[in-house]
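Board notes, transcribed. Complex of a protein with 5'-deoxyadenosine.
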Amino acid sequence: MIHRLYIETVGCQMNMLDSEMVVADLRKHGYELTNDVKQADTILYNTCSVRAHAEDKVYSALGRLKLLKRRHPEKIIGVMGCMAQKDQTTIFDRAPYVDLIVGPGQLQEIPGLIEKIRAGGEHEMAVGLGRRDGSQDDIRKSHVTFDPLRDPTMRPTPYQAYLRIQIGCDKFCTYCVVPNTRGPEQGRPPAMIVDEARLLAEQGCLEITLLGQTVNSYSYTADGKTTDLAALLEMLHEVEGIKRIKFVTNYPKDMGRNLLETINNLDKVSPYLHVPLQHGSNEVLQRMKRGYTVEDYRDMMHRIWDIVPDAAISSDFIVGFCGETDAEFQTCIDSIREYRFKNSFIFKYSEREGTKAQDIMIDDVPYDVKQARNNELLEVQNEISETENIKFIGKPVAVLVEGRSKKSEQFEEAGKPIQMVGRTHCDRIVVFEGNDRQAGKILPVTIFETTPFTMFGTVVTEHVGPEVFSL
Ligand code: 5AD
Ligand code: SF4
């Protein structure tokens, strides 16, 4: 019997990859994807717990399914991912018509659990152990990475894929729920990662993005031999067909010289580094327990500029963290001006259950102050992104073409040419007039216009002289 699966994913790239794996697995069990929740007999939400807003959205989506489930009790509704791990049976309490709760470390159990429910079972729940609920080994074993299956239709594009190299996190920043929801940091075996990269290349993938919560802390030890990210990059560089290798998210303290030298030496490795600073004040960094000082971060930036001069660096910031004063907030503005990030993701602090900050600090910055600080910081960052992008005008860049741009339809309706979109090696978004045959190619494009977020260019048809591209 063919089943129809509707799946909605919120959150980070790790969640997108998890959904890709679950869909691939369920396809093997006779499932087809549908975009229409009403047509589906299985409805899954892959959830995020990093901020309350992401959870609220899922709970209201679940609320909208109440009537559907009353009319069609045979439909199976499941909640997977970080919120499933964090809230566990609370989800059954808040939405009793949910059938299935599966943590990020139990995804491989989904087909079996659904079958059990269909065979007349009641609620099913599979989650990992909490960080204090067993021996280190038992806790680790209860968070299993789920990787070998791939589903090309779930990828960002056919030419790009995420590749997990690490799960979990051991940094325990005081605001963050991830070490609880995704468990201890564990690196995947390098041979497995390389095999998966080969498979992706065979499927036509040109760009892989290595995923880990602190990806540059990657480490795998077997038979007395430890592989770090630099060594792994060397191995992946050899995979034929892969043209670009990116990796997110980095942890500032682990951005060592050797890794930077490797990035600079390997052509396929994108000199694009997402290294969240989170805050510009030592006092706040300490309250966040980030494990570095403003001075450490500055040293790291100089190390990057020294060794990888072309690097584009991006950051995350949290505004309105517990006790953040106006003067402390100003230091974030100073840091953005000092480091001139390519872009920054700015978040309003959201108190999370089970974190150290919730336990010992007070979420005392009013929401409207958080909002105002968010807007102010974003404005400074946009101003910088705009000035930095203008420097590209008149220069050629090498664009991996992803497909039609989001606005292409509007252009076509107005009788204008197709707008294609792609990215440079440093992850800068480039839009240009083109055609569908260009998708999946790396093309030279000369930039003629820029905004803080996008660059506009023309494909260079006759390239004269040496191939020197801006990144
Ligand atoms: N509130 C707001 N932002 C958060 N982040 C992590 N936890 C929280 C929280 N409780 C942000 C951090 C991280 C990004 C993925 O989300 O900036 O780098
Ligand atoms: Fe969360 Fe900090 Fe780990 Fe990043 S490094 S996932 S912010 S605990």
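Residues 253 and 292 are 7 Å apart (CA to CA). Residues 367-390 form the longest helix (24 residues).
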